[in-house]
Amino acid sequence: MAHYSKGEAKEWAREHLRGQWTTLVTPFTPDDEVDEAGLRNNIRHIRSLGTRGAGCSWNMGEFWSLTREERRRVMEVLADEAGGQWPIAAQVTHTSYKEAIALAKHVEALGYDLLILGPPYIVTKTEQQVIAFTRAVAEQASLGIMFYNSPQFGIVMSAQGLQELCRIPNVVGVKEASFNQQISIDTHLLVGKEAVISTPDEWIFAKGKELGFHQQVMFANTSDWRFDVPGRTHYVDFVNRACAGALDPDFYAKHLRPVKELSDQWWRATVQKFSGVLPVSLCKYWGQLQGMAGGHVRLPLMDLTPEEKAQLKQELDAAQAPMLVAGGERR
Prior knowledge:
Blueprint: H1 9-16, E1 19-23, H2 36-47, E2 53-56, H3 68-82, E3 88-91, H4 97-109, E4 114-117, H5 127-140, E5 145-149, H6 159-165, E6 171-176, H7 181-191, E7 196-198, H8 203-211, E8 217-221, H9 223-227, H10 234-243, H11 249-255, H12 257-273, H13 280-289, H14 306-326
Parallel strand pairs: 1-2, 1-8, 2-3, 3-4, 4-5, 5-6, 6-7
């Protein structure tokens, strides 16, 4: 559990948000209940990879499909599993600022370290709306906030808008997941000295080295538990070292590039198939192939077809085979 005042939030984030952070899915049982046992096993699995922290109730966690009680319970399970020994964050995004504040208060009472907040969706069409909403939540929250910039909310903030957001005292930084590389670069260059900026993809490390900025945290993605398994943690090792300033492109090429290329291929295809929706169904099934609990996705999302699942398994086995042989391992 973090111990800092609102005025110390940015300093705390600069010191403690480092290395690979994960984002959790919400596993469901066949009868469409939250799979609490599976969630607990997933958390323990991910912690064993060396991942530095975790976030729940994120977009990958299908927060929009959860009842209020389910969403709060997921937050409680993560807090219980972390036990104050593993940094944790929770997304409290909601269309209602009152409900976002209520979720923030719940999280704070559970001993979380950080909040995640995206734009309220449906009616938010301007950057000033996002800034006003964020300020209203931040004023009532005690914890620091990482703002989540993603097209999934229906609006993407500019680097200038993100800079204004980060001037709110306890907005400590941005997960810049717009999938627009220029916005990511501009945000790092414009805001990176004021707040913690994180683009959740490895290309940012080489670009930072080229342009003179440094990303200290991968906040956050699913690549740790999709690419690594206990005893073979190439992705987490690469990211943790890169965030500490030791970028190793040769290590990446040898141990990660084939599976990353496969991931990019499937990610793009699944997003295109569902007209821009985050590929939760892809990540859930991929995680199952790596030993995680996943289950189905809830409507209105749709699962991969049996044929797609069979193809992904075959292609993932082929992509991982050279890395397993190189490491003298078998999955």
